[in-house]
Fold this sequence. Notes:
With 673 residues, this protein is mainly alpha-helical. It has helices at 2-5, 8-14, 49-64, 66-84, 97-100, 107-144, 161-167, 187-207, 209-234, 237-259, 301-315, 317-326, 333-368, 371-374, 412-420, 426-459, 468-487, 493-530, 553-565, 568-577, 591-615, 622-648, 655-664, 666-672, and strands at 21-23, 26-28, 378-379, 403-404. α16 crosses α17. The protein is globular, with a radius of gyration of 30 Å.
Amino acid sequence: GLFYGGVAEPMYHYGGERVATISTGRRLGTLSGAAPNDDWTLRSGHMNDGDRANYALMQSYFHWGIHGWIPYVLIGALMGLLSYRRGLPMTMRTCFYPLWGKQIEGWRGDVVDVLSIMCTLFGVCTSLGLGVRQLNRGLIRLDRGTFMGVDYYGSEYTSDADDRMRKTACGNSVPCRRGKTELDFNVKTQCWIVVFVTLLATCSVAVGLKRGIAVLSYVAFGMGMILVTAVLFMDDTMYILDATTTSLGYYLWYLPKIAWECDAWARLNSDHSWTGSAVRGSLGKDGIAGTPDGLGAGSEWLSGWTVFYWGWWISWGPFVGTFLAKISKGRTLREFIIYAMIVPTLYCIFWFGTFGGAAIGMQMRADHMGASDEGWTYMGKDATHPLDTRMKNAKPEHNKGYVVDFGGSSSVEDQFFDLISSYGGKGLAYGLTCWAWLCLLFYFITSSDSGSLVIDMISANGEQEPPLPQRIFWAFTEGSAAIALLAGSQGDPSRALGGVQAVSVVCGLPFTVVLMYMSHALYLCCLEEAGDLDENRPGWRTVCLGLPKADEVGEWIQSIVIAAVAPFIPIWKVLSQVESSTSGADPIMSKEKMVVLYTALSAIFIYFGSILLIFSQWEANLRMLAATLYLAFATVVSYTRYMTRTGLGIQFGDALTDVCLSVLFYPLVLAQC
């Protein structure tokens, strides 16, 4: 992701594909609703290029900053505390021990582990799907000797019909050559790259954590640091440091705002049902979504960017969280948070600030030189003689190989290689491209082998050294799943990209609910470790979502049926036996009257809501009124469960759990009470 979006994402938010016009010294036409870039942060028509640059980097920091690392720290801290201090197995079901106790050994724990395996599997597949595109593009550039948009190796493509489809892979490269090995940007090549990476990852997993995975991780990180630092020094160093510092300030300033942004107004008319003749804006145009003035983000921006990122990060949660817990034995919770959340966030800011700042600076330079007006993408003396990069008077001329107009760059994947190739002649460009490609390959392998190891551990019930055949099985399964996603695109690389992005969102959505409960579990775990809560505190006699003992099945079924058909009966029985108030204040009415009131309300809400649901076939919105009454009924049920917990001194459970269970499984809740 760092390589795929390091240049492309800041450039997209900046508006590299904008159509700009200059009038009386102000740039117009770049921030309207008709602009190809509909970033929600770019809503002011008076915003200048410098502000847009800050917003572009700030938006990238938001997608790769502290929010993304929180799921990893949450899972890793919880699993580390319970595994190393309680002796529980290092698997995802362990995270629910503060909430479920020994019930994690049942079917609910199995569901959590299976969901975690699926999230890890397809989360890694998403990264493989994005990374393999970058690897494919890098191989093509090396194979064809691409420099300043010109290919130097291999014979030229012709204009024959047989070569016309393959020539599209060349983009703006003129002339377009076959390359030494005739590689193309297609799904077949990408599948073979995945096979190669899977074999290397399998070897790494088979060797083990210390001799294989850890060594590759160190190599990948070291090569990445060399690359980003080299770009920092080869470019205008003070400019990049200033840009990173300024945009970091914007990130900290805007963080409370963008963290709560839901794009409510941009989704108006997303079903394209509004048409009209608004004098200004977009409502006069059929099929346009958003506000009447037509400014701001489009209806698909949030789901295509932020929601995708959150799904991707969350789907990696079981993998990275478990891996962090495994390598963090002996750390304090404070150290763990600093090194697993704060430091990685700063590294991502440094990465995007360097590559994104360099790209935006180059785009501004291209705009100054009139690249778009002249129809140029690459500007230098010519491809054979780029701008002078030699030492003059003992003073190096940085960033003078050539200039790229990223708005005309052939592809998202090319933008990263275009940037790092622009700092010198062909030799330096090929060397940096090769280095970046190897760096990406090692990152690719270390992601795959680490994901395989974590899946091995979870499927082996927390065994930290799973059997070798199982390691090999899961390593091949990951590669096979990634190939299946790519092959299912029917040969279209763009369709393959959409498939891997959709998978991450689909897997991340259900695990979001799991993270919510893990947050509460971590809170309870910290209370237990601090001695403020007894680990062996009183619990429920029966399990709400569990199965009864063999000799209690009949009584359990009877309770379920009564609770489902006549829920006011168990509500009346429970409230009659528990205390009427837990606050210590004078009650509003007597206990007997309170019991009658809640019992009557529960009957009215459930039965009248059912009647409304029946008549909703004649008036559709009666369903919504019925749903409202059902939520009111579930509130009474959750109050009943709450009174049972407090009256009997049960310390397992909380208000959120009471409400969720009452909404989804009210017969089971009443049977448990």
